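Because showing beats explaining, we let one protein speak, sequence and backbone structure tokens together, and leave readers to judge.
___
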Amino acid sequence: MATKIILLTDVENLGLRGDVVDVASGYARNYLLPRRMAETATPAKVAELERREAHRSRHDARSGDQARDLAAKLEAVELRFDVNAGPTGTLFGSITATDIAERIRELSGIRVDRRKIHLAEPIKRVGRYQVEIAVFEDVNASVRTLVVPEGGELPPEEPEAPPEAEATEADGAESLAEAEAEPVAEAAAPQPEPEPEVPAEETVPSGMPEAEPADDIVAEAAAGTLGQTGEPESA
């Protein structure tokens, strides 16, 4: 059997403070109610809650110009939460949308509907965050939020390189890459093979008889037709 309750604090995976939700009776009786995380949603309490929500909505921006002014004021606020965290930066607890709405009201007097604070999940680690808030249709504010370990500080932010410096570094890296690629391309290019040398033809001096081929001389010697001088014998 389900029980209707009003959350008195943000409960992960269930809702934000002030939400009216249905939960299992045992869960409400044994866990939420004893820990004062919720109260039973009686008709009188629900009516009071609706009256408060209507009063808060009257303070919301009524036009785009009002919304832009409100967004500018919100973005001028820097939220800081000093939290109990472990050595690895994990929080013993979490920062919820309700915590952010209350801190904004404390610092600036601006009431923000916690349902308009866009947190995918509660913040559970120290660090720097930009929390988006829907102020009006198509008008959002980004609120800088610091979650700092108790007794400590966050490390300084690394300065952003100007666009010109980034472009110069990119051009230098590209030039270096091209310079490194050129020798490789040259080494990979096939070298032309040397042409085989053609032996020069021997020429016989003028006035001397051309030498007979060696095969012919051997054949004549075998036939006994050569003299001792190597000339053919006359008949």
Remarks:
- DSSP finds six helices and nine strands in the chain.
- Helices lie at 25-32, 43-57, 64-75, 97-108, 163-188, 214-223.
